[in-house]
Specification:
The complex is a heterodimer of chains A (about 250) and B (about 375).
Chain A lengths: L11 H14 L3 E7 L2 E6 L4 H10 L5 E9 L18 H9 L14 E9 L4 E9 L5 E3 L8 H12 L2 E3 L25 H5 L22 H5 L8 H4 L1 H11 L1
Parallel strand pairs in A: 2-5, 6-7
Antiparallel strand pairs in A: 1-2, 3-4, 4-5
Helix pairs in contact in A: 1-2
Chain B lengths: L2 H15 L10 E5 L11 E7 L2 E8 L7 H4 L5 H8 L7 H16 L5 H29 L4 H21 L8 E2 L2 E2 L7 H24 L2 H7 L7 H6 L5 H4 L7 H4 L21 H24 L19 E9 L2 E9 L7 E5 L1 H7 L1 H4 L5 H11 L3 H5 L1
Antiparallel strand pairs in B: 1-2, 2-3, 4-5, 6-7, 7-8
Helix pairs in contact in B: 3-4, 4-5, 5-6, 5-7, 5-12, 5-15, 6-7, 7-12, 12-15
Classes of the chains: A alpha/beta (about 250), B alpha+beta (about 375).
């Protein structure tokens, strides 16, 4: 996808920003998407600081909205992939998770980690989301705190939540978490402990419902046997449920 | 006390503070919070003092960090709606709207016009409930006890209207992808128009009693001045940046399906950028908000309140960022969906996080009583910082 395909509706300011960034970054601007009245630009890691500098000094993007990260690695056991199979099934699941495919989002991406930030122009009322790919093994990128002082806390948050390092940041230390905390909670492979120790209680659920609790499984056995006798169905309803419970246990 | 005990004590204090306490004879470290009335919850601020002046101040959020961004990855869209209600708990409905709008944008669903108008009404009622409490609370923090009683009294009228329609005083959970949960009850619109009169009376009362008073102005004028460029760099939004003379309000300046543009109102700014300006702008915003609600109640279109949406909500893959002008400032949701029942990643941009990140800059060199004034006028809610 390139910007040339983008609709021209109200895109004047976005197009101007995109042209300005392309002029100052050249080939370091990897991809851009202009749709639904919003602009995404993916730049090379080395040009991250340069993109912000151009945005602030030349393009009037004076307002720093936020900076954060994305981990594109699909989470093991979250977002519906995992069903409750008991402890013995865990190992098989973990090996299956290894091959899960990484799908990156808008404006593409080449690596597992991405850092993204949003700048805004308060005069022309136009915003842009900047993205950059980070190295899988050593996610590291230059800081923008010298341009936007407000990036300080956002970079600290991304550092503790994703483990990104921001070179040149004046003091990368914990913001939310206690100092001795280990791990990076917003990485997809960081387990959410409350979900590990207890399967989700709701029936309408992101995760699949355990088989022995699934209402869909319960009418199935009686439907196979007494299918011709319709009037007896309400009376027999409790019995198959107990049967299904016993079978699963 | 023997020397080693002293040293151990100091080391323990320093470790606890997680900041480099330099062991010099001069100055002291003052720890404000986490349980200080001026912290609206549990914000802790470590101040290094030289006499009465602050050398540096370091806010330490995180005592209320609930990990919403992680939790949202394991919930489906209706469940998240309940969750995000708890971010800014004084204006809960306003938290729901940008999230729902982001999901609607990806699903290419648009709520009917009546639903958008009712959303706007509740959005503004949430703003009033939030800012009325601010106007009372800022008085308490400056040593005036009366305003907070007036604020709690009159906020109740607004909360009653929210409760009458949604069933929830604080957490309406009323917004749905594609529309609203219910239509308004009979007679609600007239009641609400009457309620707006009470809100406007409250504004007059608080202006006479506090904002217009000499003592209040002497405590707040010229204290904690934030220039517009610095505010923008730190990402200040809402009344904080409008009090620095930046004429920017997303209700007017952004494309939004909500009905703000159908009402006649104005964006209030103030050129000074000090604590007084921030309080004054919020006071005027409550008035403008009451005007908006009154007009919307009188011109509310009829029609359905729910668009056609599937029973099980799946949002197509894509990314959307939607922000709205919430009571505290700009709140945005960066929604990344991969087509599942829940988001793949949800970045929540909360206004208080940026608004309070300026504290180290603005608190440098001020006097200790002004620390409270400045924090009160910056106005943060802990749930909104920590998420």
């Amino acid at each position: 996808m390139t910007a040339t395909e983008a609709p021209a509706i109200e895109a004047g300011h976005h197009q101007r920003i995109l042209d300005g960034l392309r002029r100052s970054l050249g080939g370091a601007l990897l991809d851009s998407v202009l749709e639904r009245g919003d602009l995404w630009v993916r730049v090379e890691r080395a040009a991250w600081h340069q993109a912000f500098e151009a945005g602030k000094r030349q393009l009037g993007l004076t307002f720093f909205s936020f900076l954060s990260g994305i981990d594109w690695q699909p989470a093991p056991g979250l977002s519906g992939e995992r069903t409750f199979k008991g402890e013995e099934a865990d190992e098989a699941e973990e090996s299956a998770d290894e091959v899960a495919e990484v799908r990156t989002g808008i404006a593409g991406g080449a690596t597992r980690f991405q850092v993204f930030a949003r700048l805004y122009d308060v005069r022309r009322h136009v915003g842009v989301t900047l993205k950059a790919d980070l190295d899988d093994a050593d996610p590291r990128i230059g800081t923008v705190t010298d341009l936007y002082r407000g990036a300080d806390w956002h970079e600290r948050e991304a550092w503790e939540m994703f483990g990104f390092t921001f070179d040149g940041h004046p003091g990368l230390r914990h913001l939310y978490l206690p100092g001795e905390f280990e791990g990076h909670p917003l990485r997809k492979d960081f387990p959410l402990l409350s979900r590990e120790v207890k399967p989700w209680p709701g029936l309408v659920n992101v995760e699949q419902i355990p088989a022995h609790l699934d209402p869909k499984n319960q009418p199935a056995p009686p439907a196979a046997e007494p299918a011709p006798v319709d009037e007896a169905a309400p009376a027999e309803a409790p019995a198959p449920a107990a049967d299904a419970d016993g079978g699963a246990g | 006390m023997p020397d080693w005990k002293k040293a151990a004590y100091i080391a323990a204090q320093a470790a606890d503070a997680r900041v480099n306490v330099e062991l010099e004879a001069e100055g002291m470290t003052l720890n404000i919070g986490p349980q200080h009335p001026a912290t609206h919850g549990t914000l802790r601020i470590v101040c290094r003092l030289d006499g009465e002046q602050v050398v540096w101040a370091d806010p330490m959020p995180g005592y209320m960090h609930r990990g919403y961004e992680k939790l949202c990855e394991v919930r489906n869209y209706p469940q998240i709606n309940t969750l995000v209600n708890r971010i800014d708990w004084l204006g809960s409905f306003c938290n729901e709207v940008p999230f729902i709008l982001a999901a609607e944008q990806l699903m290419e669903v648009e709520a009917p016009e009546r639903a958008q108008w009712i959303r706007t009404i509740f959005f503004e009622l949430g703003r009033q409930a939030n800012l009325i409490l601010f106007l009372g609370d800022v008085g308490t923090q400056l040593g005036a006890i009366t305003p907070v009683f007036l604020a709690f009294r009159d906020r109740e009228h607004v909360l009653n209207m929210i409760e009458a329609a949604t069933g929830g005083r604080f957490h309406p959970n009323f917004d749905r992808i594609g529309g609203l949960k219910d239509d308004l009850p009979k007679g609600w619109l007239d009641e609400t128009v009457g309620c707006m009169q009470r809100v406007e009376d409250f504004c007059d009362e608080i202006e006479d009693l506090m904002i217009g008073g000499t003592i209040f102005q002497q405590r707040t004028r010229g204290v904690g001045v934030i220039p517009a460029e610095v505010g923008l760099e730190y990402g200040l939004t809402g009344a904080n940046i409008r009090a620095s003379g930046v004429d920017w309000d997303l209700r007017r300046d952004a494309e939004s399906p909500l009905a703000w543009k159908s009402a006649d109102w104005k964006v209030v700014t103030h050129p000074d950028g000090d604590s007084f300006a921030r309080c004054w702008v919020r006071l005027q915003e409550v008035r403008e908000s009451a005007r908006i609600v009154r007009q919307l109640c009188e011109g509310l279109p009829s029609g359905p309140i729910m668009a056609k949406v599937p029973k099980i909500i799946k949002v197509p893959a894509g990314e959307a960022y939607v922000e709205t002008e919430n009571p505290l400032g700009v709140m945005g949701y960066y929604l990344v969906s991969q087509g599942g029942l829940g988001p793949f990643r949800l970045k929540i941009r909360t206004p208080s996080f940026n608004n309070i990140s300026i504290a180290p800059w603005v608190l440098r060199g001020v006097y200790v009583p002004d620390v409270i004034t400045i924090l009160a006028s910056l106005y943060f809610i802990l749930g909104d910082i920590d998420r």
